[in-house]
TrEMBL record:
Residues 1-18 form the signal peptide. This is EF-hand domain-containing protein. Keywords: Signal. PROSITE patterns: EF_HAND_1. It comes from the Bacteria. SUPFAM superfamilies: EF-hand (SSF47473). The keyword Ligase does not apply. The keyword Signal applies.
Length: 277
C-alpha cells in the first residue's frame, strides 16, 4: 500500500514542487556521452539542464538532480539535495566532456580537489541493450524536469497537475490509458533506483513492468468516474485540483459516525480476507 501511495503522489501533486535553479547546465554539455567506445562503453552519461545520470555497463547507476548550479572557475558546479549534498563538476575539453565528482570533505574553494577526472566522448546513440534498459527512464527524467518547471513556487495545484497530465498523454488524445500510467510508474521506479544509495532506495525501485501495469489499472478503475476505461484530466483532478469552497449547509444536525466507522471496519476485514492466500 505504501508503494501505491508513493506512486499516486507523483500523479496527484498536492503542493507545488521546489522551483528550478536560476541557472542550468550549458547546452553544449547536455546529451549523451560514453566512457570509451560508443559501441562498447564502460559507462554512459546523460546530462539534462538540471541533472546528470551515470550508468555503468554493469552495476548500479547514479543520478544527481541539481538543486543549485553555479560557475566555479572554468567548471560548472552542480550540487544535489540531501544531507551529503553530492556535487559534480563539468567542463568542455574540446569536443569531449570532463567531469569530477568531488569528495564530500573537499571545500568549495578547494575544488576540484584530489578526486579523479573522468573524460567522456559524445555519442548520439548508446548500445541497444543500454537503450532498452534505460531509455524509458531517461525520457521520464526529461519529462519530470518539464513538469517541475510548471510546478514551481506560486503555481497552483491545478496547473501542476495539468502539466503532468499533458506529459503523460503519449497518444495525445486527452485521455490517460492504463499503459500511459504504467509508463509513468516505471519511470518513477527508474528514478528511485538510480537517485538514492542502495540501502536507502524506496520500495518502488523493484517495480516490474507487470506490477506497474497492475497498479495503473487500479488507478484507472479507482478514478474512472464515467467508466470509459481511461482517465480524463477532469477525473484525475476531481477534488485534487484545488480546495473547494464550503459546500455544506446550515441546516441539519451532526449525526453520530460510530456506525460508519464500524461499517468501514467490517468492510476492511472482508477485503483483507478476500486478498489473503
Amino acid at each position: 500500500m505504501t508503494r501505491i501511495l508513493v506512486l499516486l503522489a507523483l500523479l496527484l501533486p498536492g503542493a507545488a514542487l521546489a522551483q528550478a535553479p536560476a541557472t542550468a547546465i550549458p547546452e553544449p554539455m547536455r546529451g549523451n556521452w560514453t566512457d570509451g567506445d560508443c559501441a562498447r562503453p564502460a559507462a554512459v552519461l546523460h546530462v539534462t539542464p538540471r541533472a546528470a545520470v551515470r550508468l555503468p555497463a554493469e552495476g548500479a547507476g547514479r543520478l544527481l538532480r541539481f538543486a543549485a548550479i553555479a560557475r566555479h572557475e572554468d567548471w560548472v558546479l552542480g550540487t544535489a539535495d540531501g544531507a551529503a549534498a553530492p556535487r559534480l563538476l563539468l567542463r568542455m575539453r574540446g569536443d569531449a566532456l570532463e567531469t569530477v565528482e568531488p569528495e564530500a570533505k573537499t571545500r568549495d574553494d578547494a575544488l576540484p580537489g584530489p578526486a579523479a577526472l573522468q573524460l567522456w566522448r559524445r555519442c548520439p546513440q548508446w548500445p541497444p541493450a543500454l537503450v532498452a534498459q534505460h531509455g524509458e527512464g531517461i525520457a521520464f527524467l526529461g519529462m519530470l524536469e518539464r513538469v517541475e518547471a510548471a510546478c514551481g513556487e506560486g503555481m497552483g495545484a491545478a496547473g501542476c497537475l495539468a502539466a503532468l497530465y499533458r506529459a503523460a498523454d503519449i497518444s495525445g488524445d486527452g485521455l490517460l490509458s492504463a499503459a500511459e500510467l504504467a509508463r509513468l510508474f516505471r519511470g518513477a521506479a527508474w528514478i528511485a533506483a538510480v537517485e538514492e544509495p542502495a540501502d536507502e532506495r524506496p520500495a518502488l525501485q523493484g517495480l516490474t513492468a507487470a506490477a506497474a501495469l497492475l497498479l495503473a489499472r487500479g488507478v484507472v478503475e479507482s478514478l474512472d468516474y464515467d467508466g470509459d476505461g481511461r482517465l480524463s484530466l477532469a477525473e484525475l483532478a476531481q477534488d485534487r485540483g484545488g480546495l473547494p469552497e464550503s459546500g455544506g449547509t446550515a441546516e441539519g444536525h451532526p449525526l453520530p459516525l460510530i456506525g460508519l466507522t464500524e461499517a468501514l471496519g467490517a468492510l476492511r476485514a472482508v477485503v483483507s480476507g478476500a486478498a489473503a492466500p
